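>> received
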Amino acid sequence: MTDYYRRRSYLILLEGIVRRFDDDRLAAWKVSYPQSGHTLLEGSGIDSAALYGSIAALRERGIVLLKILYVPDETGKGEA
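>> returned
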């Protein structure tokens, strides 16, 4: 399996507090609001196409992405 299709976990930090996520491309993400006053999206089992689709959905709404982080699993190899 190529890395493109490998499912992985990611964190996306957004500028400010975002309350509405009415786009299907964002349905797989868990939303939280850390004390920093920003919005944090947590996604596991996300493949490259879903990641880029989510980024596009955020960009189309004019939401500023501050950081995108890959979160390795316990083995450090990502999910299969």
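>> The mean pLDDT is 87.
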